[in-house]
Request: fold
Amino acid sequence: QVQIVESGGGLVQPGGSLRLSCTASGSHFSVSRMGWYRQAPGKQRELVAGIGITDGGATNYGDLEQGRFTISKDNAKNTVYLQMSGLKPEDTAVYYCRALIPRVTPGVFWGQGTQVTVSS
Reply:
């Protein structure tokens, strides 16, 4: 059974930093891509960043302020990280990890989410 587990959320002051982690486990087939999304209260879920696991590590970022979010990975651990810096109150949201495993139905797997709150 595929499991997507996020960690690293919490309360941080404006201007602070956090690093989120996400690990995909339980699949005999390769994870092709992983990414981070976020959803603030009353808003739609939006892409933060994605990274290829089996395609050489190509990254893509959502329509967010450049330079404050960086995605990275550890292929051996099927783990991706989201380094966030210069956090602002508007970054407050539940951050979800998504993994694409094409050979396992339904192909797209989500974690339960981790809360990030930016407040003084």
